[in-house]
Amino acid sequence: MANQLKPETLCVQAGWNPGKGEPRVLPIYQSTTFKYETSEQMAKLFDLEESGYFYTRLQNPTNDAVAAKITALEGGVAGMLTSSGQAASFYAFFNICEAGDHIVSAATIYGGTYNLLSVTLKKLGITCTFIDQDASEEEISKAFRPNTKLMFGETISNPGVMVLDIEKFARIAHTHGVPLIIDNTFATPINCRPFEWGADIVTHSTTKYMDGHATSVGGCIVDSGNFDWNTHAEKYPGLCKPDPSYHGLTYTKDFGKAGYITKATSQLMRDLGAIQSPQNAFLLNIGLETLHLRIPRHCENALKVATWLQENEKVAWVNYPELKGNTYYELAKKYLPNGSCGVLSFGLKGGRDIAIRFMDNLQLAAIVTHVADARTSVLHPASHTHRQLTDEQLIEAGVAPDLIRLSVGIENAEDIIADIEQALTK
Ligand SMILES: *Cc1c(COP(=O)(O)O)cnc(C)c1O
């Protein structure tokens, strides 16, 4: 039923359907544990024979309601919350990869995910080949190996705001018999639902637009249920062969389309424990209720700011996918017809030193590491996140020394532009 409702209604209503006399608003189940009448009832839960709550590390009703809302928004069959976006990416990969396996990923992705793939997973014996997401199918296909288990990319990359050709990625992944995992953090399901373009699994840093108010770090994984693990059973023994840690049940057999998420919950959450606190899930849910109102305003404001910057003579360049002439303009029209996101980047004539002086003169836009919340914020990667690098190293890393990243908020666009204008004049 929920999937027939439109996104605006799902944002407000999905996930929590109270019965007679129950709280209208999703309650915070601030309880580590849940009570049963008989020892037998509890035993069945531990064997995954019956579903039910017993310990919040595995499942909590507040978290489940919020995961169900995001699952409905993405049009998936099962979802789970995690403590952060990083935990969501790690679980999404580690659920189907082990030592000796290989991943193919777009190179221009969020720095934290890049480190996870290139440094930390490598220590666990999982290697990654990074590819240029704009390369031809033929070129990208060369990265695949017999031990490749998944392909990964971001709908809109952070911070480059490059738009991914999801259909192309899905074709390549499926030709090689692996699922496509998409980080949909910047677009959100309001602007793009990757499952409609062939993606199999979606991850989110809910820390960004979903929470939207910069109050809570969190993540989410949603499964479309579309990837047929059993066709490639020898590649995914963790899903298609009996699990000795649960008396030999088989996830794809016993849980069908929910197998992937059930495994991530009952194995990875059980053993690694990166849960979202119910308090944070509650705040996330309040954020989600207005996601469909906030996202269009972020996009509208960002386009106004980008257009204004482009016309200003002190500005050297502007990168925003919805500007005509941008490399990703056509892909944005196709995948993001209603708008892309509130993040853009630009450079000032005069380079690095001018960028620093400009930022120090901003009054409304705050200097913070965060992006994608209600308040306009700004960051200069060359002096902050990448400050140890020389100008040459910065260019190699794809970060222009003069690049200013602007996360446009939902204030009045004229006020945001006026702030930029006064800082430029100074
Ligand atoms: C922030 C971010 C992450 C990491 O999320 P956290 O919640 O900070 O752990 C992953 N992917 C993208 C695209 C992000 O912007």
Overview of the molecule:
The protein has helices at 7-13, 39-46, 61-74, 85-94, 111-123, 137-141, 166-175, 188-191, 237-240, 251-255, 259-272, 278-289, 291-311, 329-335, 351-360, 391-396, 413-425; strands at 78-82, 102-106, 127-131, 148-154, 180-183, 201-205, 219-223, 315-319, 343-348, 366-367, 377-379, 404-407. By secondary structure, the protein is of the alpha/beta class. The strands form 2 sheets. Strands 1-7-6-5-4-2-3 form a 7-stranded mixed sheet, sandwiched between helices. Strand 4 (148-154), helix 7 and strand 5 form a beta-alpha-beta unit. 48% of the residues are buried. The chain binds pyridoxal-5'-phosphate (PLP). Pyridoxal-5'-phosphate is lined by residues 84-86, 110, 112-113, 154, 158, 183, 185-186, 205, 207-208, 217, 219. The site of pyridoxal-5'-phosphate (PLP) has 16 residues, from helix 4 and helix 5.
Helix content: 25-40%
Q: Major β-sheet, in short?
A: 7 strands, mixed
Strand content: 5-15%
Q: Count the helices. How many?
A: 17
Q: Tell me the radius of gyration.
A: 22 Å
Distance between the termini: 56 Å
Number of strands: 12
Strand-and-helix sequence, N→C?
HHHEHEHEHEHEHEEHHHHHEHEHEEHEH
Q: Strand order of the main beta sheet, please?
A: 1-7-6-5-4-2-3
Low-confidence region ranges: none
Ligand inventory reads: pyridoxal-5'-phosphate
What's the arrangement of secondary structure elements?
Layout: H1 7-13, H2 39-46, H3 61-74, E1 78-82, H4 85-94, E2 102-106, H5 111-123, E3 127-131, H6 137-141, E4 148-154, H7 166-175, E5 180-183, H8 188-191, E6 201-205, E7 219-223, H9 237-240, H10 251-255, H11 259-272, H12 278-289, H13 291-311, E8 315-319, H14 329-335, E9 343-348, H15 351-360, E10 366-367, E11 377-379, H16 391-396, E12 404-407, H17 413-425
Parallel strand pairs: 2-3, 2-4, 4-5, 5-6, 10-11
Antiparallel strand pairs: 1-7, 6-7, 8-9, 9-12, 11-12
Bound molecules: pyridoxal-5'-phosphate (PLP).
Residues 84-86, 110, 112-113, 154, 158, 183, 185-186, 205, 207-208, 217, 219 line the site of pyridoxal-5'-phosphate.
